[in-house]
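Case study 2.
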Amino acid sequence: MSTISDKLAPLLPVLASASVGDFSKDVPIPETDDEFTEVYVGIQIMLETIREQIAALKQVDQVKTEFLSIAAHQLRTPLSSIKWSSEIISQDPLTSKQSTHLSYITHSTQTLIDLVNSLLDLSRLELGRYVFEPQTVDLKTEIDRLSSEFQPQLHPKHIQYSTDFPTVPVRIDPKVLRTVLQNLLSNSVKYTPAGGRIHLQIQIKPPSIIITVTDTGPGIPPSQHHQVFTKLFRASNINPNEPGSGLGLYLTKTIIDHYHGQIDFTSHPGHGTVFVVTLPLS
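Prediction:
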C-alpha cells in the first residue's frame, strides 16, 4: 500500500526546480483518479499560468527595450550635431559669458551622448545583440587616448591623475575594455574633489587582465554597498545636482558579467573608492 510520501514523491523534482525559478518541468500526472491526482493537476495548472505570465512579461520587456534602442538611435545624430556645432563655435572669438554658456552646452550635450550610448549598449545586451569581438589591443594607445579625453575635466580641478600599466598588446574586446575604463574613470573624475588623486593600474596575470581604479572621492556609505551596481543608483552623500544617469556602473557590471569577468570594490565615506575588475584574455 502506497504511503502519502510515496504518492507525492514524483512532485519533488518539479517543486525543487520551481523553487529556484525553473518552471519548465511538467508535473507527471498519475493515471489514478483520487485526491492526489487533483493536487497534481492543480500544480500543473499553476505552473502553466506562471509560464504564460513570464512569457508575457518578457514580451513587454522586449518591446520596451526595442523602443529604447530606437529612441536612442534617433537621439544620437542630433546630439552629435549639437556637439560638433559647439566645437566649431568655440573656435570663434567669444566673450567670457558666451564661453561659459557654450561650455554648459558642450558639457550637457556630452552627458546626453554618454546616456544615449549607455542605453544603446544596454538594449543590445538585453536583446542578445551585443557581439563580443576580441582583438589585439595596444594598452598604451587606449589609455593615452582615454587620458587625453579626461584632461579637460581633470585640469580645472587640479586632480593628480597617474597610471601604471605594461606597454604590451593584449587580446581582448576593445569595446569591453573602453566601456570599463570609461565608466570607472568617469565616476572618479566626476566625484573626486579638487586637489584629489586618481590612479589607474593595469596588471596582466594570464589568463586575466586586472584593472584597478583608485580615487580620493567621497566614498560610498556601507549601507548602500549592495545597491552600487543597480540601475539609477546614486550614493546619498553625492551632490544631487551633480550630472549623471546612474547607469554607468550598472552597464559596466552587466557587460563584465556577460564577458565572464568580475568586478568588486572597497569604499568608505571620506576615504575614496577602489574598483577592481578582472577580465579574461582571449
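The helical segments are 4-8, 11-19, 35-89, 96-126, 139-157, 174-191, 248-258.
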